[in-house]
Amino acid sequence: MQLINCRSCGRLLGKGIYTTLEIKCPRCKTINSLSISNAPLDCRERPSKVEKNGD
What we know:
It is built from no helices and four strands.
């Protein structure tokens, strides 16, 4: 699990596993938008076709 802190004031907003998240800090009212671009393969959509080499 990852700790999620406000990028403005540093307050702990939560902890968890996410791919995209938008959360408003109750202390400073900053909206924090977070995303993970390198999520594990099982979290991503699988391609509809897998190309294979002609070997």
